[in-house]
């Protein structure tokens, strides 16, 4: 089982670039890239809240649970 990060999809739907989002929420583009690719072990709720506020979405729009075998 794994958590799938759909941040890139939501960003594309909102036509927001990585550079724009990273600047708006105060993180580096490199860290945003790692988050988009699901290469992080965790994310602060504060960061998640800032992303959701900027993209006008819910945490569930960004993250999905994928059970084994799917």
Automatic annotation (TrEMBL):
GO terms for molecular function: DNA binding. It holds the Pfam family HTH_26. SUPFAM superfamilies: lambda repressor-like DNA-binding domains. PANTHER family: DNA-BINDING PROTEIN, DNA-BINDING PROTEIN-RELATED. It comes from Pseudoalteromonas rubra. CDD domains: HTH_XRE (cd00093). Residues 14-62 form the HTH cro/C1-type domain. InterPro entries: Cro/C1-type_HTH (IPR001387), Lambda_DNA-bd_dom_sf (IPR010982). This is Transcriptional regulator.
């Amino acid at each position: 089982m794994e958590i799938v990060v759909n941040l890139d999809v939501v960003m594309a739907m909102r036509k927001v670039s990585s550079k724009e989002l990273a600047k708006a929420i105060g993180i580096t583009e490199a860290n945003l890239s790692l988050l988009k690719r699901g290469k992080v072990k965790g994310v602060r709720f504060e960061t998640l809240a800032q992303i959701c506020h900027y993209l006008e979405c819910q945490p569930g729009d960004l993250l999905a649970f994928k059970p084994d075998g799917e």
